[in-house]
Amino acid sequence: MLCAPEQTIQAAVAGNKYGLVKRYTLPQSLRGTWYTQVSNMSPMKITKHSFSRPGTNGKKLYAVVYVVGKVKGTNKYPWQMTGKFDKYYEKAMRVEKTRKMRGLKWTVIGPVDDHVPKMATAYTMHEENIDGQTVKVVFEADYTGKVVNQYFTTLELAQKYGKQKFTDMTYFNLDKLPQ
């Protein structure tokens, strides 16, 4: 995988009661309403500090993205705390880091209370040339940088080009999963 060294978002030492130091400002290029051909994942709305989309159980998923620090008075990060803090993290995600992969900057977001990179999701926006048109596409990838979903500015574009594989991206291969 072609990766530049990771830039870790520095966690602040002085956290608040729950370790949620400040809201993270998501890149302007990711903000907006995005559509995918996967019906239970569309539309995804990304704002300055949060994102939302339909969930698999019919409930809307909404989360504010935070820079995470140590929980005040404990010298521990949220993922080191006991389950009593879980209710405070239900509607929160943390920015893990930004990564440069294949020349693009990816924003990596994961659960506040889980420090395992396998639980993280990466997002980037890239303009792709499709049928002679320049189209904005938000790519969603797993922690290794393999694309698992792609979002477009309109539902029509998502339905038309949702299965298109772009040559500048590496895709997660569902066919290789054990049955």
What does this protein structure show overall?
The structure is a single chain. This protein has 179 residues and is mainly beta. It has one domain (7-163). The protein is 6% helix and 39% strand. The protein has two helices and eleven strands, in the order ββββββαβββββα. It has helices at 86-89, 155-161, and strands at 7-8, 20-23, 32-34, 44-46, 50-54, 60-68, 92-101, 104-111, 121-130, 133-141, 147-152. Strands 1, 2, 3, 4, 5, 6, 7, 8, 9, 10 and 11 form an eleven-stranded mixed β-sheet that branches. The chain is elongated and about 55 Å long. Residues 1-14 have low confidence and may be disordered.
Task: Name the descriptors.
eleven-stranded mixed sheet; about 180 residues; disordered N terminus; 11 strands; elongated; 2 helices; single chain; mainly beta
State the low-pLDDT regions, or none. Answer: 1-14
Mean pLDDT: 82
Largest sheet: 11 strands, mixed
Portion in helices: under 10%
N-to-C order of helices and strands: EEEEEEHEEEEEH
Q: Count of helical segments?
A: 2
Number of domains: 1
Question: What topology emerges from the helices and strands here?
Answer:
Elements: E1 7-8, E2 20-23, E3 32-34, E4 44-46, E5 50-54, E6 60-68, H1 86-89, E7 92-101, E8 104-111, E9 121-130, E10 133-141, E11 147-152, H2 155-161
Parallel strand pairs: 6-7
Antiparallel strand pairs: 1-7, 2-6, 3-4, 4-5, 5-6, 7-8, 8-9, 9-10, 10-11
